Amino acid sequence: MKSVRATVSGRVQGVYFRDSARREARMLGLVGWVRNTADGRVETQAQGLDESVDRYVHWLELGPPDAMVLAVEVVDQEPLDPPPSSFEITG
Questions:
Q1: Phi/psi zone of residue 60: left (φ > 0), alpha (ψ -120 to 50 degrees), beta?
Q2: Sorting pLDDT into bands at 50, 70 and 90, what band is 77?
Q3: Looking at 11, 35, 36, 55, which residue is catalytic?
Q4: Between 70 and which of 2, 10, 35, 75 could a Cys-Cys bridge form, CB atoms 3.0 to 4.6 Å apart?
Q5: % the chain with pLDDT above 90
Q6: Is 36 a catalytic residue?
Q7: How far is CA 88 from CA 37, 68, 70, 71, 77, in A?
Q8: Residue 65: what pLDDT?
């Protein structure tokens, strides 16, 4: 089990990044959340199987078609106990 928090910088708001990230995370069987930040970035927390989290982080580096990702900062976290029940857009 792996848990990470990531912050994505670039053209990531107004390009369906959050909805696309939620869809990708759910396909990978992850739980957690994704949200816009006031400074124009996207922040996300994802938890699940190691390989699935790694694939999600790789997806964040690309983003949806209209995004232009400049940087992804990833911080490992302790898995939440109990884990969230799904992956949602917050804020």
A1: alpha
A2: very high
A3: 36
A4: 10
A5: 92
A6: yes
A7: 15, 22, 24, 22, 18
A8: 95
- Edge to edge, the sheet with strand 31-36 lists 68-77, 2-11, 42-48, 31-36, 87-89
Tokens of 64: 């949806």
Catalytic residue (one of 11, 18, 35, 55): 18
Residue 18 is a catalytic residue: yes
- The DSSP annotation for 19-62 comes to HHHHHHHHHTT-EEEEEE-TTS-EEEEEEE-HHHHHHHHHHHHH
Retrieve residue 42's tokens.
């996207």
